[in-house]
Sequence to fold (66 residues):
Amino acid sequence: ELFPLEIWRDYDTAIVAGDGWQAILERHEISGVILPPDAVLARELREDPGWTLGTEGPAGSVFVRR
Fold:
């Protein structure tokens, strides 16, 4: 694998907005997220005041940290 197992575990947790998803994005210093239209994380980022929707279309959404 290109990425270690820990990274994949963090991804699996964050993409479904599992417990600690905010801490995961902070720990990895994520400043932007590209998500498919049906991603659970997209719903959470819309509600989070620390993130803003950059653009949205049929292929998905782009969120950036404020």
Observations:
- The CA atoms of residues 24 and 41 lie 12 Å apart.
- The chain is about 40% helix and 25% strand.
- The radius of gyration is 12 Å.
